[in-house]
Specification:
It is a single chain. The chain has 172 residues and is an alpha/beta fold. The protein has seven helices and seven strands. It has a single domain, classed as Glutaredoxin (3-Layer(aba) Sandwich). The chain is 44% helix and 19% strand. The strands form two sheets. The chain has a five-stranded mixed sheet. Strands 4-5 form a two-stranded antiparallel sheet. The protein starts with a helix and ends with a helix.
Length: 172
């Protein structure tokens, strides 16, 4: 019996440890449900299936231990396929991809909204607890580039200093 309990404990701890070593990605709907229980800022990774730089961010940036720690601490992390067919409801408006069908790639209305019509992948969009955008951040980001951004928004440094002031102090 003791061995059984020990084995179950080890399995639980290894699964729990693995979960802590990756970003807890969720869908838009899952994020909305989580937001109702415990509001947090939202990190949206806007990507496409064909985007090589998106895959590189997945493999190199989103696996970095400090990025994982900050993302899970301060944000609900949402992956959003800019050419997907999810139905998204945001602030009372419904967004779809009306021209989505197999073999045809078209941009989702919500991607156009989040990116202010400037379609570039990957693009990061961070949102407040009220789901207001801090603005899109296009392009591939290395961990060293993303970490200060996550801290600036996550720790709400923007309330007391500009990005230029913050990054200047951060780099010293």
């Amino acid at each position: 019996m003791k061995n059984f309990i020990l084995i179950i404990s080890l399995v639980f701890l290894s699964v729990w440890g693995y979960a802590q070593n990756q970003i807890q990605w969720m869908s838009w709907e899952e994020m909305l449900k989580a937001q109702e229980k415990q509001p947090k800022k939202v990190f949206v990774d806007v990507y496409t299936d064909w985007c090589g730089w998106c895959k590189r961010m997945d493999a190199h940036t989103f696996t970095h231990p400090e990025v994982i720690k900050l993302m899970n601490k301060y944000f609900y992390a949402v992956k959003f396929n800019a050419e997907g067919d999810d139905i998204i409801v945001h602030k009372g408006k419904t967004y779809t991809n009306p021209h989505s069908f197999p073999g045809k790639r078209d941009t989702h209305q919500f991607a156009k909204y989040l990116l202010n019509g400037q379609l570039s992948y990957p693009t990061i969009v961070m949102l407040s607890e009220n789901l207001d955008s801090y603005g899109p951040i296009p392009g591939y980001r290395k961990p060293a580039d993303l970490i200060p951004m996550l801290k600036f928004i996550g720790e709400e440094k923007f309330k007391t200093q500009s990005w230029e002031e913050y990054i200047s102090q951060y780099n010293q």
